[in-house]
Amino acid sequence: MLIGQLARQAGCEVETIRYYEHEGLLSAPERTAAGYRSYRSEHLGELNFILHCRSLDMSLAEVRILAGFRSDPQQDCAGINDLIDRHLETVHQQVESLQLLEQQLLALRERCPASRDAAHCGILRTLVDAAQGEACACHTPFGDGTRHGHTEST
Amino acid sequence: MLIGQLARQAGCEVETIRYYEHEGLLSAPERTAAGYRSYRSEHLGELNFILHCRSLDMSLAEVRILAGFRSDPQQDCAGINDLIDRHLETVHQQVESLQLLEQQLLALRERCPASRDAAHCGILRTLVDAAQGEACACHTPFGDGTRHGHTEST
DNA sequence: GTTTACCTTATAGTAACTTCAGGCTTGGCC
DNA sequence: GGCCAAGCCTGAAGTTACTATAAGGTAAAC
Question: Which of B31, B84, B96, B138 is the most exposed place for a label (fewest CB within 10 A)?
């Protein structure tokens, strides 16, 4: 199976496959006489594993760890649970952060229901005032007093 | 005011300020005899405007547009409304996508409440089976039949 | 024999910074 | 005056997970 066929079967781009191989996530296949990558079914399983993890928004670093467990199943799987728990926590924080953000944007949008000139635009005024340290429609009603309401988890 | 002071007042990193100047978002200040950047209060306002927009998760490209309206308030502000509306739509889709993802991860996490060896770990088994084309605990109950449930808006 | 589809590598670009390397300036202390 | 630490400077490279491009080789059909 050549790379194009593998890509079609897995539903990803050819370049992505080469990238995963380059990153050491996908094991390197044999080559044909012409130097073409020649895949077998276990490669499809490997690739699908990676793509499935990615569809759960795991980083390639996380996938790398899970792939380690996959290839060495003697290990204690507590590490898997931890990884999923941490990832879940990250995603949960992202959800909360984005929901707050959505409320902030809606509040901002309320400021300018009709189109006028920018000098009188409530949205822009709010943004400019906020930069001056004024209470802002977007952050004040929801924020907890910290300077910028929307924080990424690190 | 030197760059370190400006950074402390605005609550950002020195490098971020230099980056914004480099990107043409923040106007370049005067320099001292030694070549140090010397800021005045309008720079703080400018910087806070950028940081506030960024705290609303706007891209620098979006901030650039809003900064244009800010410096030229004669323009029709319909563009501002459009920008906020589009951004709101993007954020809303992100929220929905991440909420789905969270459900998927919770379903996956359910598979392995206790720690055993990876060979019998329900999470890993689910991930591996999914790669084989089996129905997976994470995607099946929520997915709509498409291969990978979590899609980014483009 | 040529067109078409497919494959190869290496390199650069994306977003929004962050980090690093290597070097100058300022201010305090002795 | 000498020394040191903190703070400033520039320019380049690193980060993530690809995506795109350039320039070219190969295989099969027509």
Answer: B31
Residues B56 and B98 in one domain: no
The domain of B99 spans 76-154
End residue of a domain, out of B71, B93, B109? B71
DSSP character string of B54-118: HHTT--HHHHHHHHHHHH-TTSBTHHHHHHHHHHHHHHHHHHHHHHHHHHHHHHHHHT-SS--BG
Of A84, A101, A121, the CB nearest to B56: A101
DSSP three-state, residue B4? helix
Q: Say what the pLDDT of residue B5 is.
A: 96
Which of A43-47, A58-62, A121-125, B130-134 has the least mean pLDDT? B130-134
Query: Counting beta carbons within 10 angstroms of the beta carbon of residue B146, is it exposed (0 to 12), middle (13 to 18) or buried (19 or more)?
Result: exposed
With CA of B60 and C1' of each nucleotide, the nearest comes out as C16
Q: How many helices (H) and strands (E) does chain B have?
A: 6, 2
DSSP state of B129: H
Give the mean pLDDT of A3-22: 96
| pLDDT value of position A140 | 56
Q: Which positions 34-73 of B are in contact with A (Cβ < 8 Å)? A: 45-49, 51-57, 66, 69-70, 72-73
Residue B132 and residue B148 in one domain: yes
Q: What would the pLDDT profile of A59-115 be if each residue is shown by its tens digit?
A: 999 999 999 888 887 787 888 888 999 999 999 989 988 888 888 888 888 877 666
